[in-house]
Amino acid sequence: MTALTRREALAWALLAGSTAVLSGCVPTAAPPLVLGCGEAGGSYLQFGELLADATSSSTRLRISPLPTEGSVDNLALLAARHVDLALSLVDSAAAADPAADVVAIGRVYQNYLQCVVRADGGIRNLDDLAGRTVSLGAPGSGAAATARRVLEVSGLAGSATPPRVVERTFREAVDDLAAGTIDALFWSGGVPTPQIADLATRVPITVIDTTPALDGLARAYPEVYAATTIPAGVYDAKRAVPTIGVANLLLARSDLADDLVRALVDALIDDAPALVPADALGIQYLTPASLIDTAPLALHPAAERRYRERYG
After folding, report:
1. Which of 169, 179, 178 is nearest to 138 (CA)?
2. Nearest to 42 by CA among 235, 194, 231, 205
3. pLDDT tens track for 149-177
4. CA-based nearest residue to 173, from 149, 193, 153, 156
5. For residues 23 and 4, what is the distance between their CA atoms, to the nearest angstrom?
6. pLDDT tens string 275-298
7. Residues in CB range of 250: below 8 A, 6 or more apart
């Protein structure tokens, strides 16, 4: 399964019979809500598939996960009404056009920014990326947007020997790193990411510390980045690796019907155990405190009311 173009996404959504659902009664045979997810093999599509499975027997809510190129693509699809819901990194969502009228249903989990290099490539820190070939991520992905910011605030992008940046899909970047045609790849996702774990069985790899860029990111983009740690043992690492955490949000437009928003909130609360991948480590999913922590994006008013009803 590969990421779809915007034209293909629209055709897929029309075939599914999905339209933006405005306030009012929802018929029993309501079409599914199309959820813009991400690339095959990534956390977004996995989460979307788990949410679809968890709600498959619901009479209130049906979800159709759509493979896409990621956060930036999802936001464009949501603004154009080609999808009803979208998953996005909070930094990409915060940078979206305010006219798009995007609101949050909840914070669903935290991504780890992972800068993966070959262990034999002589790259030990961000500064060592100077002059190297680096995949930022797929075009339209949140990973690429975040990685570009990291290179900018760290001074690498404007240095005398900046990295040679390319944009590859996740699968392409993994294969390119294994073949030695790129020196590093950025990926934003849960840990362990299965494709990176598989890569570690093919060639020795290292995940480098991205937190030297954190102060610059916090100054330029308040409220969206946090320090976190990839646990020891992930990808056979002997030590924990400090890195940058970025929240993932489930988003909608503000005109999504209140009853559908309530059903989504109930699914995030009641089906939480079924929405966590079995191999996930070190990720805070779907807790009362984290679900409502969507700043700087506002919650959908119906979501805010439902959280208050459920949590007091």
Report:
1. 169
2. 194
3. 999 999 999 999 999 999 999 999 999 99
4. 193
5. 29
6. 988 777 655 677 888 899 999 999
7. 85, 86, 87, 104, 105, 106, 107, 108, 264, 268
Q: How far is CA 221 from CA 34, 94, 119, in A?
A: 30, 9, 31
Contact status, residue 281 vs residue 87, Cβ threshold 8 Å: no
Q: Is the dihedral of CA 278, 280, 286, 288 positive or negative?
A: positive
The Cα–Cα gap between 241 and 192 comes to 13
pTM: 0.85
Residues 6+ apart with CB under 8 A from 5: none
Backbone angles phi, psi at 259, to 5 degrees: -70, -30
The tokens describing 274, both together, are 């079924």
Question: Is 132 a residue whose pLDDT tops 90?
Answer: yes
